[in-house]
UniProtKB/TrEMBL annotation:
A Pfam family the protein falls into: BTB
Residue ranges annotated for the BTB domain, each copy included: 40-107
Keyword Repeat tagged: yes
Keyword rRNA-binding: no
PROSITE patterns: BTB
Coiled coil residues, start to end: none
Protein name, UniProt field: Kelch 6
SUPFAM superfamilies with a match to the protein in the record: Kelch motif, POZ domain
Length: 610
């Protein structure tokens, strides 16, 4: 028996050794055959230099070679491939990689190797060089890398290069490499919404600089390029500069004008570029406008904006007092839905604030008055979900079409629920926790409701603990649930029971995957201070939490929250509580006069043919 066990054990060791060493043996064997020119059945040629290779190996790595050697092409029977426009050193490095797995990359050779790898469709090599180029990108290389990624439709590398260019567009447009870009690459750059430019005049000057660098080749494209310049966003002073420049440069030109307001300018031009607005955290809170002897004379729903770029605070015109209303933003517009007045009446109103005009307007009301409800945006629609109306908890839901300006019913929730956290992720709406009856009844919802906007269907996912009045923030292909009231006890609630453990709230946060399950692999530090409900938003992969007049920030991977240096300024109102927050795009101050008044706008420049 012992001998048999030893034999079995020995056999297992042989099998393990054989399987783990197979890759090494294969690589060593191929390398030896390649170096000795043995069993080679194909030749590759570049710059007159011949490389003996094995068709099976080339075809295994490259669909390009597989098609060439298995289909009725000349190379199939001649077994020779000639590369007229590839350097022999590049081909040598590629073959060394295929036969040995080794690759020597330098900034000087990476781009040529990337082009060859894409031509030959060697995907592992494409990814290796793509990562190398992304990691080594710089001001001197980003334009060339962008052109390379754009030409080969390499999305990962294109994203890295795009971010580098959009952040540094103005100095890069004056870089020596800019005139050498091909027309399609220039058009793709100057048409981007993401350019961090404070004025459209910067884009205009970049276009003219590219044209003037090689007038014989580029002048014929001037009309096409000027169509990418968002002329309606030019101020009157900037238009004077453009007019003078065009007339001096091209002689006679036809200018097209139109009377436009702010919305008209955005439609005609395609919208503001990223550098033309500031991102604000706008917090919705309850403030006392006047208090005498402890008596509130006037209470309003107030809005305070914190510019994330400049770390400065601004006030937004207030609304009448509304408690527990829905609050969200879409681009440069805020929306406030429902809420409860001081007298206890619940409203179905929908208000819109336009950062272009700085004014509020009332839109069509919801079919059902709501408070403590979900209010989310997805694909040009607003969704009002569940909540309460008086003493009743609601299971109804409806959507508002931002284009048609009308409300429509959608599928009811599986049951009535309120006081939940809510978020939008990949065309789905998530309602997290909450109460399925009044708070006094104490029936918490231990689960997550997920609404599919495309199919109008609700699904349910269980939750191991109670979650009440938290805030949800979408980021990193998941949902971060911040603070609120959480109870991990498994005891069963009964009607009429007050959940005492929920009263004190929690500093804890957790992460939901897109399927609605809690992921404990994502570590989130506890909130530095307790606030109910948390006012949390996401901006540039950071979560920002407003506590009183202070902002705390956290980025995934960091061990703790950090406190912003700036605090809210003294205002004419007395702060009571912040109940919600969103990010809002607000035009920079130099553009606000242009967008808030109707005036003559330059909409097209037709340069006459010379």
């Amino acid at each position: 028996m012992d001998t048999k066990k030893e034999q079995d054990s020995s056999g297992m060791d042989d099998i393990s050794l054989s399987s783990t060493s197979l890759g090494c043996y294969t690589i060593q064997g191929l390398k030896q055959l390649y170096e000795a020119h043995q069993l080679c059945d194909a030749t590759l040629m570049a710059e007159g230099r011949i490389f003996s290779c094995h068709r099976a190996l080339l075809a295994a790595f490259s669909p390009y070679f597989r098609a060439m050697f298995t289909r009725p092409f000349r190379e199939c029977w001649e077994r020779q491939v000639v590369f007229e426009d590839m350097a022999s050193s590049v081909l040598q490095r590629i073959l060394d990689y295929l036969y040995t797995g080794e690759l020597l990359l330098t900034p000087e050779t990476a781009q040529d190797l990337f082009t060859a790898a894409n031509r030959l469709v060697i995907r592992p090599l494409q990814e290796i060089i793509g990562r190398f180029l992304a990691d080594s990108i710089s001001m001197d290389s980003c334009l060339g890398i962008y052109a390379l990624a754009y030409a080969h439709n390499h999305q990962a590398l294109l994203r890295v290069a795009t971010r580098h260019i959009t952040i540094n567009f103005e100095p890069l447009s004056q870089h020596e490499a800019f005139p050498g870009l091909d027309p399609s690459t220039v058009i793709s750059i100057v048409s981007s919404d993401k350019l961090l430019v404070s004025s459209e005049l910067i884009v205009y000057h970049a276009v003219q600089r590219w044209v003037r660098s090689q007038p014989a080749e580029h002048l014929s494209l001037i009309k096409k390029l000027l169509k990418q310049v968002r002329l309606p966003l030019l101020t009157s002073e900037e238009i004077t500069v453009v007019q003078k420049d065009i007339i001096e440069e091209y002689g006679h030109a036809h200018l097209q004008w139109e009377q436009l307001d702010g919305e008209g300018r955005l439609r005609k031009s395609g919208g503001l570029r990223h550098g033309m607005y500031d991102d604000w955290i706008v917090s919705l809170g309850l403030f006392v406008s006047n208090m005498q002897g402890g008596v509130v004379e006037r209470l309003k729903t107030h809005f305070l904006g914190f510019s994330l770029q400049t770390e400065s605070w601004e006030e937004i015109p207030p609304l009448m007092y509304l408690d527990s209303s829905g609050f969200l933003s879409v681009g440069h517009k805020l929306y406030v839905s429902g809420g409860q007045r001081l007298n206890g009446s619940v409203l179905g109103n929908l208000h819109e604030f336009d950062a272009l005009t700085g004014q509020w307007m009332q839109l069509p009301s919801m079919s059902t008055p709501r408070r403590e409800h979900g209010f989310l945006a997805c694909k040009q629609k607003l969704y009002a979900l569940g909540g309460r109306s008086g003493r009743s908890v609601l299971d109804s839901a409806e959507s508002f079409d931002l284009v048609q300006k009308s409300w429509s019913p959608i599928a009811n929730l599986p049951f009535a629920v309120s006081h939940f956290a809510s978020a939008t992720l990949k065309n789905k709406l998530y309602l997290i926790g909450g109460f399925s009856h009044t708070r006094a009844s104490g029936l918490a919802h231990r689960g997550i409701l997920i609404y599919e906007t495309g199919s109008d269907v609700w699904n349910q996912v269980p939750l191991a603990f109670q979650c009440y009045k938290s805030t949800a923030v979408t980021m990193d292909n998941g949902i971060f649930v911040i603070g609120g009231l959480v109870e991990e006890s498994s005891r069963r609630e009964t009607p009429g029971t007050v959940i005492r453990a929920l009263i004190s709230g929690t500093h804890k946060c957790f992460f939901l995957s897109k399927d609605g399950t809690v992921s404990y692999d994502v570590a989130i530090p506890e909130l530095p201070i307790l606030v109910l409900p948390p006012c949390a938003v996401q901006w540039q992969r950071r979560i920002h939490v407003l506590v009183g007049n202070t902002i705390y920030q956290w980025k995934p991977g960091e061990p703790s929250w950090t406190r912003s240096r700036k605090t809210a300024p003294n205002t004419r109102v007395t702060f009571l509580t912040v109940v919600n927050g969103v990010t809002l795009r607000v035009p920079k101050k130099n553009l606000q006069p242009l967008l808030r008044e109707a005036s003559a706008a330059l909409t097209a420049v037709w340069v006459a043919d010379n």
